[in-house]
Amino acid sequence: MVGRYRLARCRRLETLGVSQPERHPPNAPAAIGGADGARRCRLKGVSLRIEVDRESCMASGNCSMWAPGVFDHDDAGIAVVVDPAGEDDDTVLLAARNCPKAAIAVFRQEERLV
Predict the structure, then answer these.
(1) Containing domain of residue 26, as a range?
(2) How far apart are CA 50 and CA 47, in angstroms?
(3) Closest Cα to residue 95, out of 58, 50, 54?
(4) Is the pTM of this model over 0.85?
(5) Where are the extended beta strands (E) located within the chain?
(6) DSSP state of 111
(7) What CATH number did the domain enclosing 19 receive?
(8) pLDDT, tens digit (0-9, with 9 covering 90-100), for 67-89
(9) Nearest Cα to 66, choosing from 43, 84, 105, 92?
(10) What CA–CA distance (Å, rounded) separates 34 from 15?
(11) How many domains does one find in the chain?
(12) Tens-place pLDDT, residues 17-56
């Protein structure tokens, strides 16, 4: 299932003109993976940059309920960003604010919004 998910995501991103997602390896140093060294998945190239801290995510499903066009869950139930432009900015911010573990960070340029 994850393979089909990745292929579909890459196709959607190509239609948006977005380069391939930037992924950090699980053992990334703190300078790459974040201040706490947590594994993160980032998608760049659209108005908002959305990061999901996969170590903090508790798979509640709130993000995909609030913004189903942006978030989905992998086979382990952890949230992933499928299309950063899949919903309007306010909906993405609402989904991030309703994450019970605050595992979603949303940035516009370098400013952290959530």
Answers:
(1) 2-112
(2) 10
(3) 50
(4) no
(5) 22-23, 40-43, 49-53, 71-73, 79-81, 104-108, 111-112
(6) E
(7) 3.30.70.20
(8) 999 999 999 999 999 998 899 99
(9) 92
(10) 29
(11) 1
(12) 544 444 444 443 333 334 444 444 544 445 789 999 999 9
